[in-house]
Amino acid sequence: MVEKDLVLVGCKEGNHRNKEMFSNDSKVQIAVLQERFKAHEQIIDKVDTAIQTLSETNQNICKMLAVHDERLDQCSKDDNELCKKVEDIETKIDSLYKFRWQIGGVVALALVLIGILPSLVPTLTNVPTSATIERAK
To answer: What is the rounded radius of gyration, in angstroms, for the C-alpha atoms of the chain?
Structure first.
């Protein structure tokens, strides 16, 4: 039944007091429903604001993750370059280490030759011997 029908029913019975009471009751109910509706609207507005904030936060996080991924990629490239440079340096150090031993060998050989040379020189070269002529008697 519609509100008017209820009011008319009350009037047909001849009870004007019920009509006023029903009218006041329905006004109170409508007022309560309006307040609840306003409260629900406020809650919905707050939920909408929260959703917008979460959406903005999600976008910011996505941007930060993209930047972070770029930085990780760059760090990985830098690490690879550093590893290559370290390997090059190790190769150079190994070659210098070998060169040092080669120089040491040459110096040792030179020292040995210098030590032996004075004893070899007289045998390799003819030292003129002094010749003396003596008279025969």
So the answer is: 57
- What type of residue is 35? E
CB atoms within 10 A of CB 92: 10
Residue at token pair 């029913």: 9
Copy the structure tokens of residue 89: 């340096």
Both tokens assigned to 23: 């009218």
Residue labelled with tokens 């039944």: 1
Neighbours of 8 (CB within 10 A): 13
83 class by beta-carbon count within 10 Å (0-12 exposed, 13-18 middle, 19+ buried): exposed
CA 90 to each of CA 21, 87, 94, 101: distance values in angstroms, whole numbers, following the listed order:
101, 5, 6, 17
What per-residue confidence (pLDDT) applies to 128?
64
Q: 3-state class of 44 per DSSP? A: helix
Provide the pLDDT for residue 26: 86
What pLDDT, in 10s, does the model give residues 82-128? 999 999 999 999 999 999 999 999 999 988 888 887 776 666 666 56
